[in-house]
Write a structure and sequence with these properties.
The structure holds two protein chains of two kinds. By secondary structure, chain A is α/β, with parallel strands linked by helices. In chain A, 43% of the residues lie in helices and 23% in strands. In chain A, helix 11 packs across helix 12. The longest helix of chain A is centred in the middle third of the chain and has 54 residues. Chain A is elongated and about 140 Å long. The two termini of chain A are 66 Å apart. Chain B is an alpha/beta fold. In chain B, strand 4, helix 4 and strand 5 form a beta-alpha-beta unit. The chains are: A alpha/beta, B alpha/beta. At the A-B interface, helix 9 and helix 10 of A face helix 1 of B.
């Protein structure tokens, strides 16, 4: 013990005895002790409350009261954490035990005191207190952490079950302590769990191991667990501790991210092909024109029944196929300009029925089930015909020995792909479903994962690998979604869903709690490079009555702001965009629209943006991921600000 | 009326394509004039009477967007066929602007299709 002095309060009515103690402590070789005297219980308690003493030495006799009274009051009432050592003039075993039960750190006979005894008693008491404090802190942490901490003996019986475990699994500690822990394990995973258990009992720690636990309700939760052996003082393994963390939401986020990444990758690939096609289409078409034109010239000079005529016709056919291919590739880059119109899928499929019958084998039984009162969709007729044709041709090729082909239409009520995850804001609405089902060879999950990729084909030598990619691009162009269900040797269903096309005067999106969310009529420019996010923002704002202009990047934002002839009240912009960021956009727009209000949307923390000079005082920020309710309220609030 | 009564002008910046037009339409009996861009087309129009203009949408030098307003002013009766690589229906747009565009056909050009349009516009009886 060195450095700071240990402050000891001596509760002692006899001043001589206090003096003796002071002398004894002054002879301690290691460390300094500062002694203070308190006479009588009231003074002792008063000084205790000042909370400045490291230890207490208390005489058993305190006037009318006793040292036991002080002990009781100090620990039970004043919650004293410092060690209290009781001093008496006699040896009394009973008293000693009582003092210990009350929480005394030690019990010393006044008549046998010397410097060593005193010093050791105080030092030990202080050390023990420190260890106890640490332990109780650890115990509190263990008890209260959100992670599940479960102790087990070497046979797998639960010995402790903290609050985190109770909350995570739905059991009270009493229900599970003493029981085998296997009830927490999914039956299918029991062998694996046993293996990990064996390893742990043999002394190996198993960290961050992902598994499933079964809650009291029978539900499963994804957990990441760490098992460690518990050893006693002799290093013998007497049990296992398990720390489990609920990773259900992390897993969900990961799965969503993965899916989004896949979709992004696919659309980037399609975009790249589209751009490439756009770049070469002009030259390619000229080449095809030259080939075709020359062939046509030659065709006129050879007799109709000559072999040359047949060969030239083949060349001409290839030219037409080449032209078709170029046109198809342009779909991916959205270069192919389309003509949106209200289409009834029942009419479209009915009109194509004859063509389908011509294309498919007599062994294939085609039926069309038309949904009643089918809502129209908004799309380009030629493109939707192409979608249907490609799906029917695929179904045909999947059934070389015949089978059934079913085209089915119906109205469904659900939220769209873009709105998933925002269900509390967007009410489900009517959509139009088109299912194309065949009883053909089906696809393995490995093949299914790639079918929408351009140039992926299973029809060796026969397919271009563009059929389903085209379908996908067209469906996405019209804000539809596409799902595939397939079982090898049973068949495949392609399920397409489009938003129903409502007449202009009806609001496209219905609010769930329209009255609670503030409406507006102002004009807002939304700039966001992420397609999905931008569309959701635009829809949410339009739903609230705002007039919305949108831009995919900073430069487009500036152009839109400059090109619009009326007032723009608010700029709602992403902060981080390639080339021109949100701040630069806002600065640029403010040059010619000084009164425009600005709200930034950011995935970065406010501090980072301020550090980078992105945010000045008085500028508004919405943090990603955001709640649409919040976004709409924030927009209203900022618009109403003076 | 027969093909040899008419002169058709073809404007396209691609030489091979001009040759295709020339070969095929000379064979049909038409008189053929070629131009590699809009400015040349205007110059040729001053020199001779032309009954039909077949023109590419985009050409370096002078493209159709600059050419058409001049045609509208100086040669309002000259029928035009536009050839384009854009899969857009531009016809209504042209007509709305008062241009004498009779047809818009997509690339790659089918000479057969073009011949049919020429006959139709020039009111030549099919053989």
């Amino acid at each position: 013990m060195s450095g700071k002095a240990v402050r000891v309060l001596v509760v002692e009515d006899n001043l001589e005895d206090f003096e003796i103690l002071r002398i004894l402590f002054s002879k301690v070789k290691h460390g300094r002790y500062e002694l203070e005297n308190a006479i009588g219980l009231p003074e002792a308690l008063e000084k205790l409350r000042l909370n400045k003493h490291d230890a207490f030495l208390v005489d058993y006799k305190l006037g009318a009261d006793s040292g036991m009274d002080f002990l009781r009051l100090a620990i039970q009432q004043e919650k004293c954490q410092s060690p209290i050592i009781l001093l008496t003039g006699f040896n009394d075993y009973e008293l000693d035990i009582e003092a210990m039960n009350l929480g005394a750190a030690d019990f010393l006979n006044k008549n046998k005191l010397d410097t060593d005894v005193l010093e050791r008693s105080v030092r030990y008491a202080l050390d023990r207190k420190k260890a106890e404090e640490l332990q109780s802190q650890l115990a509190v942490i263990l008890l209260q952490t959100a992670d599940a901490v479960i102790g087990m003996d070497e046979h797998g019986k639960v010995t402790s079950f903290n609050r985190g475990a109770e909350k995570m699994l739905g059991y009270e500690a009493d229900e599970i302590v003493g029981q085998s822990a296997t009830r927490l394990t999914l039956p299918e995973l029991i062998d694996e769990a046993k293996l990990v258990w064996e390893r742990t009992v043999n002394g190996e720690a198993n960290s961050n191991y992902e598994t499933l636990w079964v809650k009291k309700t029978g539900e499963h939760i994804d957990v990441e667990i760490t098992l460690s052996p518990i050893r006693n003082a002799k290093e013998r393994i007497i049990g296992v501790s398990v720390i489990g963390r609920d990773i259900t939401s992390r897993k969900q986020v990961l799965a969503t991210l993965q899916k989004q990444e896949e979709q992004l990758r696919l659309s980037q690939k399609m975009d790249a092909i589209g751009r490439l096609a756009g770049g070469v289409a002009h030259d390619f078409n000229n080449l095809l024109s030259v080939i075709g034109g020359n062939v046509e010239f030659l065709l006129d000079s050879v007799p109709k029944d000559s072999p040359e005529n047949e060969e030239l016709n083949e060349v001409q056919k290839a030219v037409r196929q080449g032209a078709e291919l170029t046109k198809q590739l342009l779909v991916f880059g959205k270069k192919q300009v389309s003509q949106p119109q209200a289409l009834n899928l029942n009419e479209v499929s009915q009109d194509m029925n004859k063509m389908f019958k011509r294309l498919i084998d007599a062994q294939i039984d085609l039926s069309i089930i038309q949904g009643k009162d089918l809502k129209p969709i908004q799309a380009d007729l030629g493109q939707i015909q192409q979608v249907l044709l490609n799906l029917v041709l695929n179904a045909r090729d999947a059934m070389p020995r015949g089978g059934r082909l079913l085209i089915e239409t119906k109205n469904v009520t659900e939220v769209g792909d873009l709105e998933k995850g925002f269900e509390n804001f967007f009410a489900p609405q009517t959509r139009v479903r088109l299912n194309v089902t065949d009883t053909g060879m089906g696809m393995t999950p490995e093949i299914q994962a790639h079918i929408f990729e351009p140039f992926f084909t299973t029809k060796e030598g026969k397919g271009t690998g563009l059929g389903l990619a085209t379908v996908y691009a067209i469906v996405k162009n019209w804000e539809g979604s596409i799902l595939v269900h397939s079982i090898p040797n049973i068949g495949t269903t392609f399920s397409l869903t489009f938003p129903a096309y409502e007449a202009e005067d009806k609001p496209q999106v219905k609010a769930k709690q329209q009255s609670l969310i503030p409406m507006g009529h102002e004009t807002i420019l939304v700039t966001e490079d992420e397609d999905g996010v931008r569309k959701v923002l635009v829809r949410a704002l339009e739903k609230q009555g705002y007039k919305v202009l949108q831009a995919e990047n900073g430069q487009e934002g500036v152009r839109k702001a400059a090109g619009y002839s009326e007032k723009i009240d608010l700029l709602l912009t992403d902060t981080v965009m390639p080339k021109m960021n949100g701040k630069e956009l806002a600065d640029e727009v403010k040059k010619f629209r000084p009164k425009i209000k600005v709200i930034f949307i950011s995935g970065y923390a406010q501090e980072i943006l301020s550090q980078q000079g992105m945010l000045d005082a008085g500028i508004h920020l919405i943090q990603k991921p955001f709640d649409l309710d919040f976004m709409v309220r924030e927009v209203r609030r900022v618009l109403d600000e003076k | 009326m027969k093909c040899s009564d008419f002169t058709i002008m073809f404007a396209d910046d691609n030489e091979q394509i001009r040759k295709i037009y020339e070969k095929n339409f000379l064979k049909e009996g038409y008189k053929v004039v070629l131009a590699e861009h809009g400015a040349r087309a205007l110059a040729e129009l001053k020199e001779q009477k032309v009954d039909l203009l077949v023109t590419d949408m985009e050409m370096p030098g002078m493209n159709t967007l600059e050419l058409f307003p001049i045609l509208k002013k100086d040669y309002p009766k000259l029928p035009v066929i536009v050839v384009t690589g854009h899969y857009v229906n531009l016809l209504e747009d042209f007509i709305a602007k008062g241009f004498a565009v009779k047809a818009v056909i997509n690339k790659p050009v089918s000479v057969g299709e073009l011949k049919e349009w020429a006959r139709k516009i020039l009111k030549i009886d099919n053989l």
